[in-house]
């Protein structure tokens, strides 16, 4: 069959008419496009919920809620949880969890205060010691998780108790009063410094929270270290095989988390004026709530840190909005519970889309 | 590791040996909610001093955190096994602990509730505590007297403890309102009053952070609040920070309850207008004395006439005394403060 030999492609061309295997392109309805868009930009859902809830409470309550005072008040009320949520996000992106964030925050603030007032150290050195305390706690967490291969939940559950007990034993639960700090070590309250932009009042703490989120978002998306964090969270073995130093990445993540918590402790002094060992007891749960509502997957490797900021703000909007509407405080908790479950359900739905 | 375990076992044996050796005299137990809160630290100091004076062996136990019920039950069982004559108890869970307390009383121990009454209050042989309603009433009367005619147009913010409305928070809140001259509605709960002078209630968890947040929430409802009741002094300090951030710290009257040293210092600095001071040291030392006389001849402690507990007293601390309201000065308050 010489003709066929010359024209050997004809067979293939003929076969091509019947489909062998192809991607199913039928389902490209608006819902699928939405699912895909959310998969690419996981912070869109919390952003939408945030904007919608602000509009809803604005319509419901009018100028009482839609005033510069109320809206900037929300920022001030979420600043501590927001900063801690940044630390929590980085950890959760590695498929870990940090239950000790609140305890590390409080211990760091107590170290800053006690080193200044009990030992008479210059306030700058005391602050550095406080920041180091946070990093050391984070390093212990990271070492136990990365090197000893203990589960993050267990390690940080233990460290939560250890750090909190250390905090109470060391401080003897004594409060350092705002007036003493103001007179002798005003640098400790620097995060409370106010400035006004067109009637709205911002504090250094609020600006710090927003800048921290933006910087972390950039680092996580555009640096090698940031991509490694996502890779470790998605599949540590694959990351290892691709040449990522998983141990070092994990330890660095927990050290960073500890450092951010220590900054949160510094901001906490600005927020409440005094150094109080009983503060921040619920910061771990509140930060996980913000992260989950913010659409960051608890299974690691997916989500945007900006989502955690939106998550914290959503909680703040609901808390203040419901209080202004005169609702019982329990309704806030109930609605936040609904939001948490809703956020995880959306996360599972988005997961079904193929990358 | 093995050596460590052996060491621990040896240490345990020697300490329990010492305990047995000391067991021939009268012994008593002090069980507090935690051993970190300055209030309970002061309580333990009072108990230790009184125990030494009465030649009583004192053992102290504490929960790990406020609300740690199991550790307190285990401590009561240890005291029964130890043959103690009596127990001084500040219960974390006032109703669940009753079973263990009954067990101790049946074993012949005198059980005295300190600071926190049990539910029901007669589950203990006696209760030595602050009259929290009176503590609230004093600051209410003081606030009304200080405002004078303006009390009729006051805008009041109420910073309470928790949504579960534990009795100490309800008593102080309702006492304050009664003292201020506001109709209480149901005196067993706060938040049901319909007097227009009350701007709102919010909860603080009794710390600075909660105090600031709650104050901000109420200021968002009405920025012209001019009287603030607070459950305790840390919450008051937080409320002050919120007021300071909008520049209203000098035209708002803050009142509180507790009498801790930082709180009394805040009265001196004008952060708090007046606070009702309670006396944990006295509760503990009176409690030890009661156990001593019970061990000697079986005498049971008597209640303060007209009350179902022994009132260890409360005093209003302020440097701006008001007509018709008894008070002590900040200097006197500093001498008696705890923490």
Please outline the helices and strands:
The complex is a heterodimer of chains A (355) and B (339).
Chain A: H1 2-6, H2 9-16, H3 30-40, H4 44-61, H5 68-93, H6 101-117, H7 123-146, H8 152-171, H9 178-184, E1 194-197, E2 200-203, H10 204-222, H11 224-234, H12 236-241, H13 246-272, H14 283-293, H15 305-324, H16 329-351
Antiparallel strand pairs in A: 1-2
Chain B: H1 2-21, E1 27-32, H2 38-53, E2 57-62, H3 69-82, E3 86-89, H4 98-106, E4 110-114, E5 126-129, H5 132-147, E6 156-160, H6 167-180, E7 198-203, H7 208-221, E8 227-230, H8 233-245, E9 253-258, H9 261-268, E10 274-278, H10 280-297, E11 310-311, E12 314-317, H11 330-336
Question: What gross morphology of chain B would you assign?
Answer: elongated
In DSSP terms, counting alpha (H) and pi (I) runs of 4 or more, how many helices of chain A? 16
What is the CATH architecture assignment of chain A? Orthogonal Bundle
Give me the oligomer status: heterodimer
3D structure, described in words:
The complex is a heterodimer of chains A (355) and B (339). In chain A, 71% of the residues lie in helices and 2% in strands. Chain A is mainly alpha-helical and 355 residues long. In chain A, strand 1 (194-197) and strand 2 form a beta hairpin. In chain A, helix 14 crosses helix 15 and helix 15 (305-324) packs antiparallel against helix 16. Chain A is globular and about 95 Å long. The mean pLDDT of chain A is 88. Chain B is an alpha/beta fold and 339 residues long. Chain B folds into 2 domains: 25-130 and 280-302, Response regulator (Rossmann fold, 3-Layer(aba) Sandwich); 132-278 and 314-336, Rossmann fold, CATH 3.40.50.2300. Chain B is 44% helix and 17% strand. Chain B has helices spanning 2-21, 38-53, 69-82, 98-106, 132-147, 167-180, 208-221, 233-245, 261-268, 280-297, 330-336, and strands at residues 27-32, 57-62, 86-89, 110-114, 126-129, 156-160, 198-203, 227-230, 253-258, 274-278, 310-311, 314-317. In chain B, the strands form 2 sheets. Chain B has a 6-stranded parallel sheet, with helices on both faces. The two termini of chain B are 40 Å apart. Mean pLDDT of chain B is 88; it is low at 5-23. The A-B interface holds A 64, 69-70, 73, 76-77, 80, 165, 168-169, 172-175, 177-179, 192, 194, 201, 268, 271-274, 276-281, 319-320, 323-324, 326, 328-330 and B 34, 36-38, 41, 64, 163, 200, 202-203, 205-209, 211-213, 216-217, 220-221, 223, 234, 237-238, 240-241, 244-245, 262, 265-266, 269, 271, 339.
């Amino acid at each position: 069959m010489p003709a066929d030999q010359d024209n050997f492609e004809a067979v293939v061309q003929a076969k091509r008419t019947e489909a062998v295997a192809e991607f199913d392109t039928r389902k490209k309805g608006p819902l699928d496009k939405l699912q895909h868009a959310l998969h690419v930009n996981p912070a869109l859902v919390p952003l939408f919920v945030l904007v919608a809830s602000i509009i809803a409470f604005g319509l419901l309550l009018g100028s009482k809620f839609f005033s510069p005072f109320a809206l900037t008040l929300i920022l001030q009320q979420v600043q501590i949880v927001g900063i801690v949520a940044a630390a929590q996000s980085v950890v959760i992106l590695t498929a870990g969890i940090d239950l000790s964030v609140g305890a590390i925050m409080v211990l760091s603030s107590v170290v800053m205060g006690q080193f200044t007032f009990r030992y008479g150290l210059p306030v700058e050195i005391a602050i550095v010691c406080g920041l180091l305390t946070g990093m050391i706690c984070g390093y212990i967490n990271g070492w136990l998780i990365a090197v000893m291969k203990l589960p993050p939940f267990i390690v940080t559950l233990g460290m939560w108790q250890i750090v909190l007990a250390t905090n109470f034993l060391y401080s003897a639960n004594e409060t350092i009063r705002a007036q003493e700090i103001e007179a002798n070590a005003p640098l400790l309250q620097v995060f409370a410094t106010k400035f006004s932009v067109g009637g709205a009042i911002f504090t250094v703490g609020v600006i710090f929270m927003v800048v921290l989120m933006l910087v972390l978002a950039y680092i996580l998306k555009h640096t090698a270290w940031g991509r490694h964090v996502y890779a470790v969270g998605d599949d540590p073995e694959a990351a290892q095989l691709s040449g990522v130093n998983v141990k070092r990445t994990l330890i660095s993540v927990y050290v960073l988390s500890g450092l951010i918590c220590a900054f949160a402790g510094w901001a906490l002094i600005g927020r409440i004026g005094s150094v109080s060992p009983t503060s921040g007891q619920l910061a771990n749960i509140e930060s996980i709530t913000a992260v989950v509502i913010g659409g960051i997957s608890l299974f690691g490797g997916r989500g945007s840190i900006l989502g955690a900021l939106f998550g914290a703000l959503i909680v703040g909007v609901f808390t203040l909005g419901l209080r202004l509407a005169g609702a019982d405080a329990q309704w806030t908790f109930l609605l936040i519970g609904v939001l948490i479950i809703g956020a995880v359900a959306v996360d599972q739905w988005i997961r079904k889309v193929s990358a | 590791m093995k050596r460590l375990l052996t060491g621990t076992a040896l240490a345990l044996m020697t300490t329990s040996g010492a305990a047995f050796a000391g067991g021939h005299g009268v012994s008593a137990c002090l069980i507090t909610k935690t051993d970190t809160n300055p209030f309970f630290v002061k309580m333990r100091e009072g108990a230790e001093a009184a125990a030494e004076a009465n030649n009583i062996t004192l053992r102290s136990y504490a929960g790990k955190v406020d609300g740690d019920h199991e550790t307190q039950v285990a401590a009561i069982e240890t005291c029964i096994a130890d043959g103690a004559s009596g127990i001084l108890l500040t219960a974390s869970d006032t109703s669940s602990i009753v079973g263990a307390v009954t067990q101790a009383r049946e074993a012949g121990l005198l059980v005295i509730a300190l600071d926190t009454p049990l539910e029901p209050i007669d589950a203990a042989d006696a209760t030595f505590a602050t009259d929290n309603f009176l503590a609230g009433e004093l600051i209410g009367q003081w606030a009304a007297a200080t405002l004078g005619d303006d009390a009729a147009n006051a805008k009041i913010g109420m910073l309470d403890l928790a949504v579960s409305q534990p009795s100490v928070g309800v008593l102080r809140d309702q006492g304050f309102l009664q003292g201020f001259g506001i109709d209480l509605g149901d005196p067993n709960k706060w938040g049901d009053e319909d007097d227009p002078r009350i701007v709102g209630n919010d909860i603080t968890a009794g710390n600075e952070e909660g105090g600031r947040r709650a104050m901000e929430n109420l200021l968002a409802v009405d920025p012209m609040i001019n009287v603030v009741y607070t459950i305790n002094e840390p919450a008051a300090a937080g409320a002050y920070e919120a007021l300071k951030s909008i520049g209203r710290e000098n035209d708002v009257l803050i009142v509180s309850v507790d009498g801790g040293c930082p709180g009394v210092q805040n009265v001196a600095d004008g952060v708090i207008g007046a606070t009702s001071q309670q006396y944990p040291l006295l509760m503990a030392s009176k409690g030890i004395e009661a156990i001593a006389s019970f061990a000697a001849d079986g005498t049971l402690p008597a209640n303060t006439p007209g009350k179902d507990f022994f009132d260890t007293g409360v005093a209003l601390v302020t440097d701006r005394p008001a007509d018709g309201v008894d008070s002590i000065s900040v200097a006197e308050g500093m001498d008696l403060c705890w923490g």
